[in-house]
Structure formats: C-alpha cells, structure tokens
Amino acid sequence: MAQRKPVTVQQKKKIYAVAREIGIDNDLLHALVEKRFSKQHISDLTLIQAGALIDYLEERKGRGRNIQLPSGRKVPLVTDKQLYKINQLARQLGWDNPKRLPGFCKKYAGVDKPEWLTKEQAWRVIEGLKSLVKQTKAGGGDDGTAALD
After folding, report:
1. Which residues are bridge partners to 77 per DSSP?
2. In 3D, which of 70, 6, 76 has the Cα closest to residue 44?
3. Lowest mean pLDDT among 3-17, 60-74, 111-125
4. Is 1's pLDDT higher than 50?
5. How far, in Å, are 60, 110, 148 from residue 26 at the CA level?
6. What is the DSSP track for 72-90?
7. What is the arithmetic mean of pLDDT over 1-18?
8. What is the pTM of this model?
9. What is the pLDDT of residue 149?
C-alpha cells in the first residue's frame, strides 16, 4: 500500500487561521477533526484530508461557495451573513411556519431553499423582506401573507 502524504505546515496554519476567523476554538476544531476523520490531532491528517477540512471551513466562512454554470461561469452562493439577515427579517415578520420563507424564496427567486440562493438572489430576497417589514411597521396591517398570494 502506498504511503499517504501527511498534512503540510502550511495546511495546518491555514486550518487554524480559518477556524479562528469563523469563531471555532481549538477544542471545537479538534472535535470536528475527530468526527469527520476519526483522528485525534490535526497533524494526524493526510494531505487530502487536510484539504477537505480547509474546503469545509472555507465554506462555513462563506468563501469558496460557488456553483458552476454550464457555461463555465462561477456564481457565488449566498453568504452566512445573508442567510442570517434573511432569517432575521422572516422572524420580524412573524413567519413561524417553516414553509413560509422557502415559499417566498421560490416565488421571488425560483429557488426552493434559502441556502440555495445565489448572492444576487439573496440580495433581492433581503430587499423584498425589508420592504415587507417596512410595510408592516407603517401600519399596513399586512402580516406578509399578501406576498405569497
């Protein structure tokens, strides 16, 4: 069996740096390594496993989340901050029904789940939700149901 290449020093530095950026402390990072790769230490990872961990952490950070269109063009997906804002606005509207927000995204962006939005679609959904919040605060009495009619 071929010997597997170990994680590089640069990869370890990258793993710790990205984890720190997204608020993952060392204990949580090591628990993640244990769960995903059944390894006790980051230095026990292989080159490929370390690369997969970096990709995962980058996705959690909101970087590197792209979809590639058939034309070859890469389109950035919704960021964690955008998802947070979308969910925050939905809560402000009192949308407790779990089908409400996906229904809004389906109608206005053509996407079944907020997590599947592109950055541009997410921006449009956020602006639409802001508009609904503004209408309800202005005393329109609309609880957001008209947006789904």
Report:
1. 118
2. 6
3. 60-74
4. no
5. 16, 40, 44
6. S-EEEBPPHHHHHHHHHHH
7. 85
8. 0.51
9. 46
- Residue in the block written with tokens 């409400």: 100
CA distance 100 to 109: 14
Residue positions counted in the chain = 149
Residue whose C-alpha is closest to residue 123's, from 141, 104, 109: 109
Q: In angstroms, rounded to a whole number, what is the distance separating the alpha carbons of residues 21 and 15?
A: 10
CB-based burial label for 50 (10 Å; 0-12, 13-18, 19+): buried
Residues 71 and 4: their CA atoms lie apart, in Å, by 36
Q: Are 118 and 77 in contact (CB under 8 A)?
A: yes
Q: Give the other-Cβ count within 10 Å of 35's Cβ.
A: 9
pLDDT for 101: 93
How many angstroms from the chain centroid is the CA of residue 102?
A: 15
What does the pLDDT look like over 74-107, one tens digit per residue? 777 788 788 899 999 999 999 988 899 999 999 8
The span from the CA of 82 to the CA of 71, in Å, is: 26
Q: Which residues pair with 66 in a beta bridge?
A: 76
